Structures are given as structure tokens and as C-alpha cells.
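User: two proteins, same treatment. go.

Assistant:
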Amino acid sequence: MKRFHVHVHVDDLGKSIAFYSKLFAAEPTRVEGDYAKWMLDDPRINFAISTRGERAGVDHLGFQTDDAAELAELKARAEAADMALLVEGETTCCYARSEKHWVTDPQGIAWEHFHTLGNVPVFSERESEQTASDSACCAPRAPRGKPLGIAVKSGSSCC
């Protein structure tokens, strides 16, 4: 079963955690200095917020799969529809290790399809190996923060 994913960039993490905790009537399942995530069952959603990004608002949407077969099904569907596909494979982002790929809708909204494999102690292992001024998450990035090979909203931070 898939779980809908929404990632929102926020300016004030503390205020946003307080707001969404009241809205969802639940505390986040994970909180870091720049990130929070709720794994809700009603509705079934992975809702994440972070201070990573250029401006407040929806960063990207996606589907989190429960297993590798569901992820492969989403990838096959995108390939059959001739969607531009950015395959990252196994990567780390948003304090998790995942297998993932991306597609972009006609308006330029990035859709992340991923299967979480485990947790990691940093936002991105790749980022922890880079300098702060050269940070990137999840995909090889073009100068403005977009994953290479697919048109993704500027400032997309993934996960």
C-alpha cells in the first residue's frame, strides 16, 4: 500500500511543528533541527516540513511505497507513459536511506517515488561530505538546486 507524501518548506520550524501538531492531533514521528515528519494513518500520509529551500510552500509531492515491488510498479508506469524519469537508486535524504526516482508533472511539480530502507543520522550522507556552500540533497544538482536530467521546481530539497 502506498502512502501519499507532501514536503513543505517552512520559514519557522518551531511554529510550523506547533501548527501541524494541532492540525493533525499528533506529534511528529521525527524532529531534527531543520526537519520534522508525521507518518499518519488517517489519512495515510508522510507529511514532512523543513527549513531547506528557497521559499515557503509545497516543495514536492510523492508516493512512499511499502515495498520494492510497488516502487518498481510506479517506475514501470512512468516509463510506459514516456515520462521524464530521474532514477537515483539508493540514496540518503531527509534522515533516511531510500531507493527512489523522480518524475515531473506538466506544471513542473516534482513527484518523488521512494521506498524507505532505514534511518540515517544526517539529512543527507552526500551533503555531510560536502561543504555547507556546496550542499545538495538526494540528486546530482544543477547550479540552482534542480536535480540534473529532470525539470524540478527550483529550490526542491527532496523527501
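Protein 2:
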Amino acid sequence: MTQFHHEIVATDGAARAGILHTVHGEVPTPTFMPVGTAATVKAMTPEMVRSTGAGIVLGNTYHLMLRPSAERVAALGGLHRFMNWPGPILTDSGGFQVMSLGKLRKLTERGVTFASHIDGTRYELTPERSVEIQHLLDATITMQLDECLKLPAERHEVRRAMELSLRWAARSKDAFRPRAGYGLFGIVQGGTDAELRRLSAMGLREIGFDGYAIGGLAVGEPQAEMFRTIEGTEPHLPADRPRYLMGVGKPSDLVGAVMRGIDMFDCVMPTRSGRTAQAFTRRGTMNLRNARHADDPRPLDEASDCPAARDYSRAYLHHLVRSDEILGAILLTWNNLWYYQSLMRGMRAAIVAGQLADWAQGFAAEQAMGDLAVWSR
């Protein structure tokens, strides 16, 4: 029976290339997880998501508990069958969404009570209930429930939230039902305070998890501050367990974080950008709403092996966007997810070859020349 573990196959500085072994299949790392919040990656079929090279996707406890309900998904055979995704699925605990509800929620030691944003129905989400929901969904990777504090905040508040998250981590671990090939991740909190991050990481290690996430970043802080926080946290995480940076991010964020030892990422950026006319390419980001694309017969990237980037002109994509045609969102989302996965493939190959620093320099140079190489005619 497959045991959940992260096999490191190569390192280059702090960066790692590996294979995440799970009951639902193997995932090469570093990896980017497309966000499928409500059991769908927006504007994509599962087949299109698979075509990009994605090996694992993300679902969300908060949204799925409200609609269609975890019990209904379980009765229908679990989330993999429900959404036609046989590969691994990580489910976010719902903490971030619940904490974002503001006055609609009430936080106590026991958990969070909140009003549904759909119909106002009251719910309670505790560490135990969050883990139970994720079990019913048949999540490959379950996340502990944590308090994701809005920053900036006073240090005493950041510490309070971090310590509550640690207590909830212990309860999540007690509630989790171990099964071969399934994993439970703890979440390091502590804002951008290095000492609080260290205390959080050490506390989680004492509890013991299959993987460790860094939460509470990518909330508007400068990139340099995010990188500094990763650098201060990474040495305190077990080297033999996967490291997951939650909610990140831009392509340059991914490259910098991989160079600092991160293995897993998720972010709505490539899919949300695809629905708002933004296309990620190896030479920067393009806004297909701009009039400059109206008469441009070139594809997004003639060197890409993504059909959306290679086979459709910028003029056509511009037309679709300006006409509010659904196909525009589909093609740009497909392009963006493909680009993110190609970024992961490039970094994995560079780590194995021991050339990540050179690869990263080339990446930065190509992105910097975007205005001339992509947008001018």
C-alpha cells in the first residue's frame, strides 16, 4: 500500500526536486496546484487541466460544506469521482474564507461560527468538523484549521492567533483518521515575525504532520518581506516533509520561493487573470483588452506547446475578450495554467541539473525584456 511521503531526488542550494507519493498518484515537485475551490477549476474541464501537466488540484472545505455539502459528495463517491479528477486533491481547511467574513463570523477557542454568504444559514466550523468534512470529501491532503489573521496587526494579536492555531493543530491531528497514502498538513503562522514563525514551526513539529504549510503570506506584503519570512521559517521545517506556501503567487514569487526551499504552491492568479483578459507568457504579462492587439496576427507565444498560446492570434483573443465571449476566458485560463506548469517543469529540470541559479537569471531576463519582445510590433 502506498505510504504518503515526499521523496527528494535532487537539491540545488535550498531548492529541492522530488516526488510526492500519495494514494491517488505521484506528483513531481516543485508543483503548482490549480485552484478548484467549488470542485471545478473555473473555465476548465478536468481534461484541459490535466493537459497542462498539473498533477494535483485544490478544493475548499468552506465552499463545499455549504454547497453541495460534504455528506452529499461522500454519498456520490467522494470528490475525485464527483469532479472527475482521479489524481491527488488537497483541500484547504476553510479557515481563510471564514476569517474573511468579518462581522458575519464569531471566533472562540472552540472554533468559528459564521453565517453562510449564500443564504445566511448559521454554521460552526471547529478543527474536528473541518477534518471530518475533508475526510468525507476524501481529500488526499487534509489541512488543519487555523486562524488566518489579517495583516498588519499588533504583535500580541499575531501571537494570540498563532498560539490558537497551534492548539487547533493538535485538535486537528487528534481528529484525523490516518490512512495509507493520505496526509495531514500543519500550517505555520506568525505574520512576518521571525520569532513567532519559529515558535509556530517548532510547535507543529512537536505535534507531527505529514507536511508543513506556510500560511498568512501573500496578503499584500512586499515580495522581499515574504522571501525574508520564508528564509526565517524554512530552517525550522523537517527536511523530509513537503513544504507548501499557501496562496502564492506571481511567477517571480514562485521562482524565488522554490529557490528558498518551497515544494508546493496554489493561487487563483492564473485562473482569475484568465477571466480578466490577462495572459502570462515567458516574456511577461499581456492585457488582451488593450487595443494594440486588435490587428496583431501573432499568437501569444509561438514557442509554446499550449494550443491556446500557439494556435490563436492575439487579434482573435482580443476580439473574444472585448465581445465577452466565454471562449476568451477558457483560452486565456488554459494558457495561464499551462505557463505555470511549464515554469514548474523548468525549475524541476534546472534543480536536477544543478543549474537553478542560471535558469532563474534567464527567467528574469526574459521577463524584463517583455515590452520589446512581446508587445511591440
